[in-house]
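User: Please predict structures.

Assistant: First:
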Amino acid sequence: MTTTTPPALLYRIEDGVAIIAFNRPEKLNALTPDMLKSFFEHVDQAAVDPSVRVILVTGEGRGFSAGLDLSVIGTGVSKTTTLTPPEPVSKQWGDDIGPDLSRYFGNGWNALITSRKPTIAAVNGAAFGWGFILSLHCDIRFAGESALFNATFARLGVPAEKGIGWLLPRLIGIARAADLLYTARRFDGREAERLGLVNQCLPDAELMPHALQYAKQIAQNAAPRSLAAMKAQIWSAGDDCYDQAFQAADREQDLAVQTQDFLEGIGSLREKRSPQFKGQ
């Protein structure tokens, strides 16, 4: 009798939400190069799918991701995980909407940022090393009370890897980022909430129901074109001056009011009903 190895990534779409789950629970979802490549392929798949409005990332079992698999560390194999930048996504969701993110995010692990779909991490259990960094590439994070975060790099004798030295100070400030990076200490979901690293820490049993319902609410009630523009505005805001951002927002507003979704949004408010946005 042959046994089938379960896929290392699970992918499904539910009410406009693409759910991507790391699926090596016996290894706390530790990442292999093939697994990471597959993850970004799934992110790109969701990015070009018009039926997907939001991307939700989580882990099966007791962990989000314990980082790079220990069997890979020190072998040189991990160098292959600096992936070729993905091809541009469909223009319906792409760089024709809002600021051009390719100015800032042309390499590395940019797929979660450049997807133009809102991305949410539901962090259950361990989020160490590269697993921690992947969660930081998401727009919004929720954590369970049993979540444990760890920027392990100083303990391993390596620098702040894969953009975390850029991401972490922007999220929680230089002093707090320095504390987490220099000490390589573990901290839980409650402290992550206090630091502003996660939007909310919830009891473990409530984490996924809350994150999924939150994602579905965005998918149902927010115009996808607006979401694409807002995401680009948010991720480029720290590198543009106020005048550039204001002028870009005005240009985007002029385009948005010509769309069917704008008319639908106004109509649904006047008629006191849920909007039926089509991304047009």
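Second:
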Amino acid sequence: MRESSKNSLSQSNKKIAIKFLLGDISSRGGIERVSVSLANALSDNYDVEIISLYKTNQEPYFKLSKKINIHILNDGYEESMYNRRKKFIQGIIFDLKYINRKNKSLRKFIAYNDIIISCDTKMSLLAMLSGSKYIIAIEHFEYDIINPVLRYVRKIIYKKISAVITLTNEDVDKYSWLPKHKHKIIPNIVEIPIPKEKKTLKTGKNVLAIGRFVEQKGFDLLLSAWSKISTKGWSLIIVGDGPDKPLLEKFINDNELNNVVLAPFTENIGEYYEQAEIFVLSSRYEGLGMVLIEALAYSLPCISFNCPAGPKTILSKDNGILVKAENCEELSIAIKKLMNDENLRKLYSSKALFSIKEYTKEQVLKLWIETIEQISK
């Protein structure tokens, strides 16, 4: 039984309705993953709903709390402002028409006093048009990757909404144009696994990477680095899916990389972490780098490109190796170094879990509750 004071807080907070706006709740993407984790955590204290513009798959890929209701504006796949493939001007026109069309459907699910949590600039614009009083935008990606027009729109919109959440302290200077009380640094939640005895595979030792097969994740760079070194007794496992899979398969075949596996996404992703000896993040850019934090949660020694943004924040405590962004030569040297030095692997492993304590559910939830209470006064 909970203490009476906690019951009072919960009852008070239940008056506040929080609604997450997502493109596709059924997607396996990182934004959907961290949004579901946050929604589940907040549902213990607030009324939480998720509004999805459309859905590609029948059911959400990531497990939602039974307390959370889902509203799908279009019960099926559609061309959207997130998946459209159009030239620059055509894309802008499409996005504006799409937002206007979705606004008519969205208004049925939004009340004036709802707190809307949006996943980016475009979704924040849609939230503004819905008439909600309170809007919190989460910026999941590196500041400079969006086009100049959207950067301009972002400044206009974000100055008008309640708060903007970014994931690392690296973002502070880039958001200096935003009133300080509106800019909050809150990382994503990482589920800390229950420690298990590490399994040793008969086939040898594994280097692990996880992510969508898209240019951003830099798996082409990782494969290039892997091809430069002697990897006898080791395997590289890349878990994911996406449009670049044929290109990665071609590189693997052309370079006769017999010890590389492209494995599909699975709900039991923890098994891959448990069976790995080393984790590598090869992204060209990130928002935070959730898989890097998850790898540390499994006490894995980690290597990452020092890409914008996130990895430098995470691997700044002598808990892994940072190499120059997109430098395949340095990455190959770092991978070989960890392969050959078991003591160094053990050192990084011993520091891993303590180095990510600020990403625990309890710490992150505390920051979110403070932000919600502040803007809803």
